[in-house]
Amino acid sequence: MNDAKIIIVSAPSGCGKGTILAEVLEKTGAFLSISCTTRGPRVGEENGVNYHFITQDEFDKMIDDNAFLEYARFVGKSYGTPAKPVDDAISQGRDAILEIETKGAFQVKESRPESVSIFILPPSIKELERRLRKRATETEEKILERVAQAAGEIEKSPRYDYVIMNDALEDAIRDFELVVSSVKANDNRADKFKAENMKETIEEVLKNA
Ligand code: 5GP
Q1: Where are the domains of the chain?
Q2: Edge-to-edge strand order for the sheet containing 31-32?
Q3: Which element (helix H / strand E) includes 6?
Q4: Cβ 81 under 6 angstroms from ligand 1
Q5: pLDDT tens-place string over residues 72-104
Q6: How far is CA 134 from CA 127, 130, 167, in A?
Q7: pLDDT above 70 covers what percent of the chain?
Q8: Is the CB of 70 under 6 A from ligand 1?
Q9: For ligand 1, atom 10: residue with the closest CA
Q10: Which of ligand 1's atoms lies nearest the C-alpha of 80?
Q11: In the CATH hierarchy, which fold is given to the domain comprising 1-30+95-209?
Q12: Which fold has domain 34-94?
């Protein structure tokens, strides 16, 4: 039986989501969706690897062609998941990981209810701000904008299927893998990470701003 799943992963930028996913991909051979975006590449980012960097006109054309599984605006730019590569991966029996923000995540959950959604929390908003500064890829104004955005996204995390925290990287990778394997086995090993059981942790993170 083909039990391949769409795995939606959201996390405020600076949560270490990229590092967690790189490890998961290496271990599992899952497919990582490459999004289209109208924002420009950051230093070190490559077209066709990190994103397909396209113009707003090209983006709008893809919307008209129904080529997106979902799309959304984020901090003034457009981001979207091309549908075909995801569908191809699933039909080949590979899990497809979508690293997307909250609005897109809810669109996918609605159109593909069999998908699983996972939100990755930072230990605190303060820590997230520190990580963003350390990364130093962004202007001060953009950092503050992203911190404000992060709080808004964390507030939506109770609407995900599962919520895990990236405090120590190794633990976060283990928890992520546990959630995916438990969803596939349809058992209760990852119940403690179900969003309804993570409410207190989510509140703590938001309080610790
Ligand atoms: P960044 O500009 O930092 O790479 O990404 C900003 C936000 O956009 C992140 O939360 C990222 O997960 C999200 N994002 C990246 N690709 C997509 C996409 O295809 N669709 C949606 N809805 N969000 C995306």
Answers
A1: 1-30+95-209, 34-94
A2: 31-32, 96-99, 6-10, 116-121, 162-165
A3: strand 6-10
A4: yes
A5: 999 899 999 999 999 999 999 999 999 999 999
A6: 10, 6, 16
A7: 99
A8: yes
A9: 101
A10: 19
A11: Rossmann fold (3.40.50)
A12: Guanylate Kinase phosphate binding domain (3.30.63)
CA of 12 to the centre of ligand 1 (A): 9
Q: Ligand 1 centroid to 188 CA: how many Å? A: 30
| Whole-number pLDDT of residue 89 | 97
- Choose one of 39, 99, 111, 153 to mutate for the ligand 1 pocket test, by most ligand atoms within 8 angstroms of C-beta: 99
Given a contact cutoff of 8 angstroms between Cβ atoms, the answer to whether 154 and 121 are in contact is yes
Ligand 1 pocket mutation, candidates 32, 35, 54, criterion most atoms within 8 A of CB: 35
Q: Which of 140, 26, 78, 159 is nearest to 67 (CA)?
A: 78
Angle 109-28-121 (CA atoms, 0-180°, nearest 5)?
50
